[in-house]
Amino acid sequence: MSHAFQWTDAAVRAALSLPRPSGDTDWPVFSQISTDTRGLQPGALFVALVGDRFDAHEFVDVAVDAGAAGLVVSGPVDVPDGVAVYRVRDTLVALGDLARFRRRTLGARVVGVTGSSGKTTTKEFIRAALESTLRTHATTGNLNNRVGLPLTILGAPQDVEALVLEMGTSEPGEIAALAAIAEPDVGVISTVGQAHLEGLGSLEGVFAEKLALLEALPSEGLAVVGDRPRTLPVRARAKADRVRVAGWSPLADPDLRPLEPQSDEAGRYTFSWKSSRIRMAVPGRHAVQSALLAAAVALELGVPSTAAAVGMASVEPPSLRGEVRRIGRLVVLADCYNANPQSVRAGLELLSELPAPHRRIAFLGSMLELGDQEDALHAELLQEALRRPLDVIVATGVFARVAPALEEEAEGRLLVEEDPLKAFANLRPHLRGDEILLLKGSRGVALERLIPLLEEAFGAPAVTGGGN
Predict the structure, then answer these.
(1) pLDDT in tens, the chain (468 residues)
(2) Strands of 222-226's sheet, edge to edge?
(3) Torsions phi, psi for 90 (to 5 deg)
(4) pTM for the structure as a whole
(5) Sign of CA dihedral 48, 50, 54, 55
(6) At what angle do helices 174-182 and 203-215 cross, to 10 degrees?
(7) Is the peptide bond before 355 cis (omega within 30 degrees of 0)?
(8) SS3 at position 167
(9) How far, in Å, CA of 297 to CA of 301, rounded?
């Protein structure tokens, strides 16, 4: 019978590649590894991270007063006797080293998930598909960076069988660094598109960053990718020996396509997969693809298809990621958590497909972190919106900046105002309360500020489902 893992002094030194000290120093077993003095448990090992706007070395005294029994530091600190100090060059790297060491002590299969859009939704479908059969631990919230991913691993229970880790990026090398910590057995890429161009430079830069996940797979590892863009499956096969492709097109593997798909009035699909008929709670074609990516992972990890199907059907959307809210007779597609060209297209596609007895309105906020391609990409998406069967398109932020060149072809359907709140005030007299309204913008734009105004105008809210 194996013993539960413990963070002994020897384990910490092994993880950090530090030599054993001379003498017989008897350090305690650390109760946890923490990067935050708030909620720190007595006996914890505190890692003093350094960021652009903070230096946790300034809070070492607070950590010790809270009961920290050990410190991982990269700078000079004064601590009382009896507190272990582990000196490293970079405490962020050290946090990753501790997490990698812990990952290697677990008997779990590790699934890494990334993508320009849809990665959080895909991660949730994978978690749900696996947890009916396997003890599963997954990323929560937005803990998908070089701090959050190690903390997710470090928080995994001893008996975990599947570890599902979301991986985010905004600059070259982040996915490679995260994959080096996680050492995934399965790598999932939902899609690759023009996102975080400010840091990644170009679509080719985004491809290189996302494909780094597949480069980290062992020879027997599995790559699971979406079928859009068309080059993604091809490029995945150049990086991994075993590749599964999920989606709607003939590029997807036959058993990872939706059969007999039907959608309801909220854009939620029902489709057949294996021997199951799956009724999605999350609307949109992109959500079906996320579910099928999860299906491929479930099959790889030995989960029965019927159990995986039940799990996938149970997934509800994270807040503000494509929720369908009914406010009186008004239907609001609240998709305010993130925006890049691919996710805006998905939102416009869903809005266009929904049965609309009355008017369809797209309220668009800026897509952030697009670098010097910002204006061109906003203009391209605004043109796409104008080609769709939409009655009103509200252009705010950068969309408003590029809108004047498109006013002629808008044929009176375009409402232009840079500030979202002022734009809503201009739109409000034209709303009867029976429209379908898409709110789509990046997190920094906070279009959810409009929801209380809609509730005040048209009645109490009711959340009925959601998406990406």
Answers:
(1) 346 899 999 999 999 999 988 766 677 899 999 999 998 999 999 999 999 899 999 999 999 999 999 999 999 998 888 899 999 999 999 999 999 999 999 999 999 999 998 899 999 999 999 999 999 999 998 899 999 999 999 999 999 999 999 999 989 999 999 999 999 999 999 999 877 777 787 888 899 999 999 999 999 999 999 999 999 999 999 999 999 999 999 999 999 999 999 999 888 999 999 999 999 999 989 999 999 999 999 999 999 999 999 999 999 977 777 788 899 999 999 999 889 999 999 999 999 988 877 899 999 999 998 999 999 999 999 999 999 999 999 999 999 999 998 988 778 899 999 999 999 999 999 999 999 999 999 999 999 999 999 999 998 655 555 544
(2) 136-138, 162-166, 109-114, 186-189, 222-226, 243-246
(3) -145, 115
(4) 0.88
(5) positive
(6) 10
(7) no
(8) coil
(9) 6
Q: Which of helix, strand or coil describes residue 304?
A: coil
Q: How many CB atoms lie within 10 A of CB 399?
A: 28
Closest CA to 280 of 291, 272, 268: 268
